[in-house]
User: Fold these one by one.
Assistant:
Number 1:
Amino acid sequence: MTKKKNIPSNSEQHLGEMGLENFPPYLMNRIMGRYNASLKKELLSLGLTTPQMRSLAVLSVINGILISELAVYAVVPQSTLSRALDVLEANGFIYRDVDEADTRAVHIFLTSAGSEANDRLWPHMSQANDAMFEGIDVAEKQAVVSTLKKMLRNIRKHKF
Amino acid sequence: MTKKKNIPSNSEQHLGEMGLENFPPYLMNRIMGRYNASLKKELLSLGLTTPQMRSLAVLSVINGILISELAVYAVVPQSTLSRALDVLEANGFIYRDVDEADTRAVHIFLTSAGSEANDRLWPHMSQANDAMFEGIDVAEKQAVVSTLKKMLRNIRKHKF
């Protein structure tokens, strides 16, 4: 196999000099790719998609949030989320409630069936997370969570 | 807004007790969502998609790899990657070369136009990465990269 490195002439450090493995977005992308892949079987067996799984997980923590907020927390574009919620509603996993003060604002709630679906998924999400941290001690895990929180605060557009 | 926490009865810590912000996959998903969003304008101006951008970036480091390897590095399903490469080839950014020893194996190479497109994208990728690490010192950045590498090694399916 031919492996050739392109070292550009500009003075700033290029990806080729840094190495893919030292570029955090590359590492996080690879890790999240494996995390999502490891949940595929469970999602298939429950007939859920990744945006639906994320929506249920977020709602299990903050039930009743607005669709626009759910889109941010679940990192799903609003158009995709809207279709995902249609299916979750048809399956009896969520229901919508219009805000009394603002009829354009729609709140999303988990039903007990939705909560049960999430409870069945959660052990697999938790396990997939634990698998990442095998052999990594508590202090190092806490340190990475702390840094990831700072990184999110640095680049998020919303207050949450 | 109604905020309600579901605290399940099982003994293991649930996402609701842990809080979304202490669940690393949630944090990485949010961070990568912002990282990808911040590159949208540049991608549009170059007429590239995220899988195409990632392919160019990976090829700039490891030119000539197999399609199957590129799919892993770029975290793009092979069917999506295949279409992305068709477009990159039509635009003169990459070319394919069949392995002399194994005609089923196809190597992908950057053309000089592809290398230039990547050189135009890279400063924005680098900037988006720098924005994440604002106010985070070198030692902390090195620590998070080191932990992310361990996490990837824990869960990757391939040797690389």
Number 2:
Amino acid sequence: MSGRHLLSVADLGRQGIEEILRLADSFKEVAGRPIPRVPALRGKTVATLFFEASTRTRLSFETAAKRLSADVMSFSASTSSLEKGESLRDTIETIDAMGVDAMIVRHRSSGVPARVTAWTSASVVNAGDGQHEHPTQALLDCYTIREALGESGGRPQTDFSGLRIGIVGDVRHSRVARSDVLALSLLGAEVVLVAPRTLLPPSLEGWPVKATADLDAVLGELDVVYLLRIQAERAGRLLLPDLDEYHARFGLTRERAGRLAERALIMHPGPMIRGVEIAPEVADLPASLVTRQVRNGVFVRSAVLFHLLAGPAGAVVGEEDGDG
Amino acid sequence: MSGRHLLSVADLGRQGIEEILRLADSFKEVAGRPIPRVPALRGKTVATLFFEASTRTRLSFETAAKRLSADVMSFSASTSSLEKGESLRDTIETIDAMGVDAMIVRHRSSGVPARVTAWTSASVVNAGDGQHEHPTQALLDCYTIREALGESGGRPQTDFSGLRIGIVGDVRHSRVARSDVLALSLLGAEVVLVAPRTLLPPSLEGWPVKATADLDAVLGELDVVYLLRIQAERAGRLLLPDLDEYHARFGLTRERAGRLAERALIMHPGPMIRGVEIAPEVADLPASLVTRQVRNGVFVRSAVLFHLLAGPAGAVVGEEDGDG
Amino acid sequence: MSGRHLLSVADLGRQGIEEILRLADSFKEVAGRPIPRVPALRGKTVATLFFEASTRTRLSFETAAKRLSADVMSFSASTSSLEKGESLRDTIETIDAMGVDAMIVRHRSSGVPARVTAWTSASVVNAGDGQHEHPTQALLDCYTIREALGESGGRPQTDFSGLRIGIVGDVRHSRVARSDVLALSLLGAEVVLVAPRTLLPPSLEGWPVKATADLDAVLGELDVVYLLRIQAERAGRLLLPDLDEYHARFGLTRERAGRLAERALIMHPGPMIRGVEIAPEVADLPASLVTRQVRNGVFVRSAVLFHLLAGPAGAVVGEEDGDG
């Protein structure tokens, strides 16, 4: 990872992704200790600035920061001065002036985290910006696939060559899809987008992917089925009649789950709506890695914060001496 | 206390209650230290999951957890993915996956904390569920009575035989009443419910209590008058004309306070509405233990968390070495 | 500072202000350490009770408290029992009973922090009460002026004799103006209020100030232009046609900035609305100390908390030994 920030998977490149995943292994080990904490970021302050609410992602970052002994400052837009007419820039400069070392930024508009970097000396992590990117989600997805491959076939490895991964749903509006396509491709996987024409990006030029509107046609060939979240509040805009219709065409029904390849994996970034993207009982199959994705999210986010704030990759993850 | 969870006073039995109260004595002592903190739960994470808001109870649990050096994760429903259609189970499994050791759950529906135990490996503490139970409230009430008895008559003792305790108000809808009846009876007290027929449970079969609708008839015989909170927003449903009428019939007026037995105690779980359940000046009498209940709530909740997470009852409560 | 509380600048007197500013120097130095934290308030709990929302002020106090290793308890009115009909007094006594050492109180009504002192044994800090005072804002403003004077003319000094400071805007409704007038006058500065008649207090008797409605007439003579926040939601009540008119008459436009004295300073308590109180480009001039005010706010609030809770002024600010 070249810079001080993590705005896009593209900032990392293949080598950067591999570094983060290796570092996340250390934090997985830390999580198993009696005191799951290292002193690496003692005295540092990590601020979460969620201009768009997401309790799960915020808690994941905050837990990841606490594992590193960092202080956490939580800023949510709903109670902030933005409502009093303050500009985003002045809000950022205000938080910066209080002395923070990293800002974790989520915003409904694409590009906000990048703009934030101009207004602070802190490291900026994109925690989801509009329809642009959500790089830590892609990292935890890669980590989870790598972990599952390791369990079924030996040591974890980040060469995803030969893997075929289907990303199913509203690709067009999904920052998760965008980051995952980038990351999975960098690691060598073949990505197939499964969506109706209306839910694909207007142009796929430059995207290293295939696309189809027919889930059933590709289902048996997928090593991973990655189901995107459908935003019920947007259903009308999806040009789909309703959620039942969505489930029928793109949901991972019980019947479809039965036609998956033997060791195929099921993933979802959460929160999932059972009965829409996935049948209730399918979400509980052993092949479903959904809660494992959440668990790994903490390890990967600790790795990202460590990498950005604690020094060069590969540094030793120290023991907690029990007094933190 | 047998299990890993605290869902009901019935889980504890008399011996379990006595253990918690003795342990709470230790935390009362800790509170008087220059650094009121012990390292017992260092590295553990206690999550508060309040699907129904209660700032006071949440802060009490969080303070109790911090006294044990635990990390605290606050989850409130209003900003959560439940609004996006995620199931309660998936929310719980998500929080669990981030790595928490205890979940403190409050929910408007009875039985939710019990269901939560199936979805997490963490210890679950019921912080109030619907009209079912609120066991830590009953424990702090018992602790407060025991403490007051100790002050007026020697050593604290948990044998409440011979004590007559009146619980006044909307017993029917009160989880506090339910837990208190159980706990007080287990310790030997005689409980008298004071409520109009409409605010008593449909059947009292199996409840070790007497009941009356006439507060004045029993007032002079009570050792403790325990006033339940009246939920103003429910007044219409109470089949009472209005809050003034409630105050006239069931409020602890100044006049009634004058007719209490000499050493009678006044209790209320809070938040109290002066002028409704209790006359403003009565709330400030020395006999009123309301703020003491709050104070003891922290000790009792520390005791519960210690008991569930730190090992067998009776373990030594270590000194903080000043570096926490 | 005589008492246990900080309710008004008048509690401090000139000597008290000078003590706080000197102590703030220590915390400015602490902020530059690898671990910007001292153990002075370890084991103490600082509660923020913001009955009126202000994310920036709350975060500033919480950061200041964490620098001292204090625990922080956040209480916000919106989710509190006040909505259930509990009195302010009972809310305060409840928080007090949980064991807190300081209460930082913000409230829309003047005098609330003073009343709170009767209900708690904790130290009370006024974080803004109605149209009364906001003493820590005045302290950070004094600190910022002192720092800037030190940079341009040698050692920081708190004798503001000969300085002319213009406070511009809605003085009448501003607690910031009230505290700043007191503090700046105590340090020897000459204060000029710049506001239309309708936005001045009904009587200036006893205020050691001059007043004018004509910003342009005094602009060139000011050493500091202090712009008050205009509350857009109150614009109608300001008897001004609209915000554009306000900007034209009282805003620090680019043209006016060009007519400032050479070393004049520009200040604003934030959040500022660019284009109303200040032209967008003027806010970014080197003369503008706005973000420096925010930064200094943390130092000054650490100094206040240290002073109130850690003992006599001048006590050594200890080294963090790296295990906190």
